[in-house]
Amino acid sequence: xxxxxxxxxxxxxxxxxxxxxxxxxxxxxxxxxxxxxxxxxxxxxxxxxxxxxxxxxxxxxxxxxxxxxxxxxxxxxxxxxxxxxxxxxxxxxxxxxxxxxxxxxxxxxxxxxxxxxxxxxxxxxxxxxxxxxxxxxxxxxxxxxxxxxxxxxxxxxxxxxxxxxxxxxxxxxxxxxxxxxxxxxxxxxxxxxxxxxxxxxxxxxxxxxxxxxxxxxxxxxxxxxxxxxxxxxxxxxxxxxxxxxxxxxxxxxxxxxxxxxxxxxxxxxxxx
Length: 272
Known about the structure:
- The protein is an alpha/beta fold.
- The protein folds into two domains: 7-142, Methylglyoxal synthase-like domain (Rossmann fold); 146-271, Ferritin, core subunit, four-helix bundle (Ferritin), CATH 1.20.1260.10.
- It is built from eleven helices and five strands.
- α8 packs antiparallel against α10 (223-253) and α9 packs antiparallel against α10 (223-253).
């Protein structure tokens, strides 16, 4: 699966805009693929910084993805409230807010409301350069769990191919003819939940088919083929249970659990 594009909110008070511009310039490669949502003049500054960086480094770094930047209103003019609304709607993945603790703000109430909503909705939040560095360098930022998920799906697919080979070998042994045709048109799925739902549907359909074929073989007193389909059905049921468990985990803990599993798996490999 492709890397998931995150919606990153970038905000800075006037005295902190230069710090944010330097941080954005330093982290251009990590920020550019994502959708950046900024308030007022901060957004214009972020866009200029990224474009200037790309003009300077295009030859060295190769092609870059198109920038995705949404400009909201200025903070004092309602931008913070617009951003808070996006957080409440679940449309922000992380908030990077370089706020000025030494200066009074005319919209201080809006600032507090924004940070309150980010805390309430469990949005990862950085309020200075150090915490922003920690956030963007975290393994959770880079890995949404797709590596773990793709390995799981790949291994399942390999097992399914072995199943097909076993059935084909048995048909040929019984002097039958094998014609392999796709049972449905390929689908491009980018959403983890949709992929799990589709996989569970296919696994259940396969389990039902294998059990029915095992019943027919038993009726014909073909014990070898009967056992073959019983064994295959058992493995398919294990796949189905695995997908059900992954779906339950995702519904309980969100897609982030995939990233946590990827990190845990990477640590196990490192120890070995």
